[in-house]
Amino acid sequence: MRSLLRSALLLGLLALLGLGTAEAADTHAPEITAQGFDITEVQQGPLGDFGRIRVRFEVPNRIEDLYIKERSYDVDLAKTPETAHFPLFGLDRQVRQLTDVTLNFQNYINEKLDAEGEYVFELRVTDRSGRSASAKLRVRVVAQPQVKQEPGNAAVETAPFRFTRIGASAVSGADEFGITWKTIESTRVIIELTKQKTNAERLVVLKPSDYDEVRSKKQLAHKTRGGDTPTLRLATANNKAAGSVFAVVNRQVPYLLKVTSSSTSLSEVGTTVTLIGEYKY
């Protein structure tokens, strides 16, 4: 009798522990995250030529609804059968069943916002378990600056970047530039930055002064025409990488990047390394 009672208690305890583990693994809330900027701040750009502005939607279960509303425009990108909505946000199909997706609002802003002013996008994502997250994206459209350009010497554009790697996972935010890195020394958290094997053509290490000197696309092309560097080593702890400048050519597009801050932190899944900065293209 005692043996049967002991077995029943043990089975009950295991079932309880199993249930607790399943619930703990499924408590991650949906997230809406701006890529390379603070979503609480108004993002500004010229009328008809607004730059890239990307927002990531991530859910623990698969996406059930992804709702976008701007004035009278509203759409559920997870369910709408109207394919004309998708290119406005850099998509080619519905996002239902995905666990994460990044939208680029650039096309919508340039096609739909035809007057100067401030506009608000209401964002909401819900997963199949009914959990949701919401946010607001505010943009300010301003008059196109009237700048006379010499033929073939257009000014470079600038945008922010944010790269993050947690442990041995992929470097988020870096695919556009064709770069990745691995940590090779833990004390100063030295990373070895390299090109991805698929599309990146060149990696060029430059002086900090090169970033400010490059004002035109012609100058940018000249800076990235130099020799190829196999690796770039950066110490990232305590903001050590701040001021580092390098250029990459990915899919035949040149980029000039300047790191403005670097940070590291420890967690159970590994060291988190974050590089924040600005790039010209």
Compile the SSE list and pairings.
Blueprint: H1 2-25, E1 31-34, E2 43-46, E3 54-58, E4 63-70, E5 73-76, E6 100-104, H2 106-112, E7 117-127, E8 132-142, E9 158-166, E10 179-185, E11 190-195, E12 200-206, H3 208-213, H4 217-223, E13 232-235, E14 245-250, E15 253-267, E16 270-280
Parallel strand pairs: 2-8
Antiparallel strand pairs: 1-3, 3-6, 4-5, 4-7, 7-8, 9-16, 10-11, 11-13, 12-14, 14-15, 15-16
Structural notes for this entry:
- With 281 residues, the protein is an alpha+beta fold.
- The protein folds into 2 domains: 31-142, Immunoglobulins (Immunoglobulin-like, Sandwich), CATH 2.60.40; 158-280, no CATH class.
- It has helices at residues 2-25, 106-112, 208-213, 217-223, and strands at 31-34, 43-46, 54-58, 63-70, 73-76, 100-104, 117-127, 132-142, 158-166, 179-185, 190-195, 200-206, 232-235, 245-250, 253-267, 270-280.
- The protein has a 5-stranded mixed sheet, with no helix packed on it. A 5-stranded antiparallel sheet has the order 9-16-15-14-12.
- The N and C termini lie far apart (77 Å).
- Mean pLDDT is 88; it is low at 1-5, 7-11 and 13-25.
